[in-house]
Write a structure and sequence with these properties.
The chain has 131 residues and is of the alpha+beta class. The chain has 2 domains: 85 residues, 2-Layer Sandwich (Zincin-like), CATH 3.30.2010; 45 residues. 48% of the residues lie in helices and 17% in strands. It has a 3-stranded mixed beta sheet with strand order 2-4-3. It has a two-stranded antiparallel ribbon with strand order 1-5. The protein is globular, with a radius of gyration of 16 Å.
Length: 131
């Protein structure tokens, strides 16, 4: 595939998916800004979370090298960037050498978030929800 650029329409769709994933994971305590500007060449998007202030900036790169820009890829990239927010506290703990019991507590918090999400979608009983 050839190099491609993300358009204003791509950005609008990407931003809507970021908002969707923030809601899905219940990240209502975060203020998230979504931008559309050039980033590192090997980056499709980036997330810069500020854990202390519960603020994050998610950027959709204007350049996508060797990847077709379509709705599925934009949705997947939006999901990935929101996951960086979900895991921000755990990453911070690892960087700071936080004791294992606190790390385990955060892991359980993440598990509960996924448990709540997946069980509310009926995934636990085999129901298939394409959203």
């Amino acid at each position: 595939m050839s190099s491609d650029r993300t358009t204003k329409e791509h950005f609008k769709y990407f931003k809507s998916k970021v908002i969707k994933w923030l809601e899905v994971f219940g990240l209502y305590d975060w203020k998230v800004f979504v931008e559309h500007k050039e980033d590192d060449e090997d980056t499709l998007a980036s997330c810069m979370p500020d854990l202390l202030n519960r603020i994050a900036v998610i950027n959709l790169n204007t350049r996508w090298a060797n990847l077709e820009v379509d709705k599925e890829s934009l949705n997947r990239v939006a999901f990935e960037e929101v996951m960086h927010i979900v895991l921000a506290r755990l990453e911070s703990f690892a960087e700071k050498g936080v004791p294992l019991d606190q790390i385990r507590e955060e892991i359980h918090s993440i598990i509960r978030r996924f448990e709540s999400l997946l069980f509310s979608l009926g995934v636990s009983n085999g129901t298939n929800h394409n959203n």
